[in-house]
Amino acid sequence: MPYATHRPTARVLDILQLLATAKDGCTLTEIATAISVPKSTIVPIIRTLCERRFIAHHGTNKYIIGINSLIVGSACLQDMDVLELFKTQMKRIVAATSEASQLGVLINGDVLYLAKEESPEPIRLISFVGKRLPAYSTAIGKALLSEYPLESIKKLYPQGLQPVTERTCTDFDALYAQCQAGRERGYFMDQEEISPGINCFSVPLQYNGHYIAAMSVSIPSFRLDDAKKERCIAALKDAKEKVEQAFTEINVSDIDFFAKSFQAQPL
User: Fold this and answer.
1) Which one of 36, 63, 81, 118 is separated from 251 by 20 to 30 angstroms, measured CA to CA?
2) Which domains does the chain have, with CATH numbers?
3) Residue limits of the IclR-ED domain (predicted)?
4) Residues of the chain with pLDDT under 50
């Protein structure tokens, strides 16, 4: 007997996947339109998901992903040995630099942040695991976009490169040049392009010939000088070397799981 998709379950999953990729959430009408289901049909599903806190109702009449969805996703990440490897190196980066370190992957033109190690400094970067930001405005994103040809980058952003701050790069040719320059020097950066007063440096992590993730250090402008910059870049490059060396010592299935779940979209 051929398998048939269970439509009510599929609709629940469609809604969760839609809201997971919608930066500002979606209205009931937008959800119904996106998954091609009448509003009357999805209202009970929406209410149940809200009651169980898998989604939440935003003050602007939009629905966003809820805390229990994050808990379920985090349970998956907790079992990934390779993620623990990254976090160990991120802690060493923080110890060497006294600045926050983050791990991100590329998802549909955005950076999705999978892990963060906090800075011990009283004034620090405000961010959180699960946050998504436009890749072209972040150091991690530029590292991961650097594998892409220019035309593929343009396809990721059909509406163009929208400014996040006044320093965000909004020109495709300039962005591509920055990505290629980063590959040549071995690290990538953004200078207050995603958040005023915050500078980031990043290195990509390579597995099986492709960049599957990138690690970064974020530094407030008032703490950034040449010595701090060199210390951060050295710590990132050392972590990159250790992580990529360790890939050969980790059970292959662990790396495959990470790569298949989170690696960048096909070039």
Assistant:
1) 118
2) 7-69 (1.10.10.10), 79-262 (3.30.450.40)
3) 68-249
4) 1, 252-253, 257, 263-267
Instruction: Report helix angle 28-35 to 39-51, nearest 10.
Output: 120
Please provide residue 22's backbone torsions phi and psi, each rounded to the nearest 5 degrees.
Answer: -95, 110
Q: d(Cα 218, Cα 190) in Å, to the nearest integer?
A: 9
Q: 35-76 pLDDT, tens per residue?
A: 999 999 999 999 999 999 899 887 678 998 887 887 776 665
Q: Residue 160 and residue 136: Cα distance in Å, rounded?
A: 11
Instruction: At 192, list the tokens.
Output: 């207050």
State the Cα–Cα distance between residues 117 and 95, nearest whole angstrom.
10
DSSP track, 176-230: HHHHHHHHHHT-EEEESSSSTTEEEEEEEEEETTEEEEEEEEEEEGGG--HHHHH
Length of the chain: 267
* Start-to-end Cα distance in the chain: 38
Q: What is the pLDDT of residue 80?
A: 55
